[in-house]
Amino acid sequence: MTNNKTDDVHHAATQGYTKGADTYAKGRPDYPSELAGWLTGDLGLGPGKIAVDLGAGTGKFTPRLIETGAQVVAVEPVAQMRAQLAAALPQADVREGTAQSLPFSDASVDAVLCAQSFHWFATREALAEIRRVLKPGGHLGLVWNVRDARVDWVARLDAIVSVREGDVPRYHTGKWRNAFPFEGFTELEERHMPHGHTGSIEDVIVKRVHSTSFILALPPDQWAEVEGEVRALIASEPALASRDVVTMPYVTHAVRATRIG
């Protein structure tokens, strides 16, 4: 990665995701089946269309785009994440790049998707670059899997994580919305889709917490402190204690803006 591209990436993403790409891949939930209709309907993806998975990470979202039949290009600035993606999806077109410097010509793609990523680069500079590469009428799609904190133990888990976030950009702060409205894009249209991540306690809770960028970046002794708090919560919660398989409740937030002109 060149220095100027590194400068475009928040230090917590560079440090955490470089060190913990494997943990990230194992700890993150998939996406609800309902999202397929949003991709093909609201975003118009299908054969003959070109879709960019921007901030693709290890490729957790990339298969959802491939399933639409569109030509998919995954763009990711962190080398270790790109390596995970290429290994998992050898058929994928994986490229180095950032939201501020996309490896595409003007008006050349039909959709740019940012899954779990837009809050990292929610600037007017990035939106101008995304608009540059979109065809007129092309779509920007923003997707986040958000833990459902209406459930008490989920709210307690979020509190363990959030107290350590520092200056790291996150979806829940809502600061990503400050980049909008943006000239050349329609107003944001939003849909919410409930779903859950079912699996072992280790994958669904412990590894999910560990896969958070600023938690990954912690030194071992501080991660041990976080892990201790997480395991104490698990032991104290009847819905979790002594269970081999659990479900973390999520709501997927899907947001669309369309290039005007």
From TrEMBL:
GO terms for biological process: methylation. Keywords: Methyltransferase, Transferase. Its EC number is 2.1.1.-. GO terms for molecular function: S-adenosylmethionine-dependent methyltransferase activity. InterPro entries: Diverse_substrate_MTase, Methyltransf_11, SAM-dependent_MTases_sf. It is an enzyme of class 2 (transferase). Residues 52-140 form the Methyltransferase type domain. The keyword Ubl conjugation does not apply. It holds the Pfam family Methyltransf_11. Belongs to the methyltransferase superfamily. This is Enzyme. The lineage of its organism: Bacteria, Pseudomonadati, Pseudomonadota, Betaproteobacteria, Burkholderiales.
